[in-house]
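haha ok so turns out i had the wrong file open the whole time. this is the CORRECT one, sorry everyone. sequence first:
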Amino acid sequence: MNLIFYLLAIITGLITGGLTSLIGASGVMVIVPVLTMLFHVETHTAIGTSLFVDVIASATVSYTYYRNGNVALKSGIWIAVSSIAGAQLGSLFASQIHEGPLSMLFGAILVLSGIMMFIKANSKKQNDKEQPNRKIRFAKGWQQIVSSIVIGIGIGIISGMIGAGGGGMILITLIVVLAYPMHKAIGTSTLIMAMTALSSTIGYAYRGNLNLQLGCILSVGAIIGGIIGGRYANKVNEKTLSKIVSIFFVCLGIVMTILEMV
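then structure:
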C-alpha cells in the first residue's frame, strides 16, 4: 500500500467520523461505496470493514457527547439490546446473498435514505422545543418496551445486511417515540449504534469478511473526524447539512447501482 492509499483511507475515515458526529447517522454509507469502487474490495468484506469503522467512529462520537451530558442510554437500552440480536440475523442473511444483488440492495437503500432525509429536511417546521409534543403516547410502560424491542430488532437486521449501524433510524426513534431533545438523541443513538455495529462486525469477522488492516487505517481518520465534528456540532445548520448529505447519499447510491449493472 502506497502513500496515496493511506491518505485516501484516512480522508474517508475523517468524512465518516464527521458525518456521524454531525447528523447522528452511520457514516459507513460513505465507506462501503469507496471501498468497493476505489479500493476494489469485495462487497461483503467492504460491509464488514465499514462496520468495524462504525464501531470506532460511533464510540468516539458518543464519548464526546457524553462529556457534554448528552447521553441517556437507560430509556433506550431495550433498543440497544434487541438491535444486537437483530444485527446477527442481518449479517447471516447477507452471507446468503450474492455480491451483485447485495451491492444493488445497498445502493437502493442509499438512495431511499437520501430521499427520506431530504424530504424530512424540507418538511421540518417545528424546532427541537416542540418535538416532545409529537411523541407517541403509550397507555402502559410494557407497550413502550415491546415497541422498542421490535424497532431494535428491525434496526439490527438492516444494520447487519447493509453495513450501517442504524443511527438514522435510532435517532428518529429516540426523538419521536422517546421524545429526546436533539443533542441527547444524537449522543445516545451513536452509543447504541456502536453496540449494534459491534455485533454485526463480529458476525462478518467470523465469516472472514473483515479487512482489519484497512479498517484500522480508516478508523484513524474516523476518530479525528468524530472528535472535531462533535466539538462543532452545535454550530452546524442541521437543515442545510441534511440537504447536502441527502444529495450526496443519493448520488453515491445511483453511481454504485449503475456500476453494478454495467
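The chain has one domain: 3-261.
again sry for the mixup
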